[in-house]
Amino acid sequence: MAFISLVLIIDCNNFFLKFVLWVPAEHDLLKFRVALWGVCSLATSKEWYEYISNEYCHRLGPFAWLCFYTAAIEVLTVIKCSQGQFTAPFPWYVKVIWACISVLLMWLFAIAFANSRLEAEASINKKSFNPYNPDLDIREHGNKTK
């Protein structure tokens, strides 16, 4: 969910930055920004996939963190430069839809958290081989020559 949210925020930032900073749609700066995000997304998606699919990978890589921070700076730029531009309140039905989506997501996160705890309790007794940090048993056998 975090990766999907990050991708959607980056896509929305393209349109919000264009609107808030008054940049024409055909400007080369926007094309460069999209191309740069496209190149960065290759390494970032690889790091995210490795983090999610590999049980021995316990942290995200530098490209994922760089994308987080760059998207955060873009969001903060949009918030700072849009003071007084978006004054109309949301309609009531939009608020209701977002409230329902939020409740559904919290419920799904609670189910996923409970399932992950059950899996963790079941795998406590099971010893597995970790290729990134092998449990080696090194004993000295003396100098045996043939």
Number of helices: 4
Low-confidence stretches: none
Counting structural domains, the number is 2
Strand portion: under 5%
Termini separation (Å)? 60 Å
- What is the share of helical residues? 55-70%
Annotation, overall tally of beta strands: 0
Order of helices and strands: HHHH
Average of the residue pLDDT scores: 87
Question: Which geometry do the CA atoms define?
Answer: flat
- Rg, Cα atoms, Å: 24 Å
Structural class of the helix and strand makeup?
Answer: mainly alpha
How would you explain this protein's 3D organization?
- The chain is an all-alpha fold and 146 residues long.
- The chain folds into two domains: 2-85, no CATH class; 89-124.
- The chain is 66% helix and 0% strand.
- The chain has helices at 2-20, 28-53, 62-81, 92-122.
- Helix 1 (2-20) runs parallel beside helix 3 and helix 2 crosses helix 3 (62-81).
- The mean pLDDT is 87.
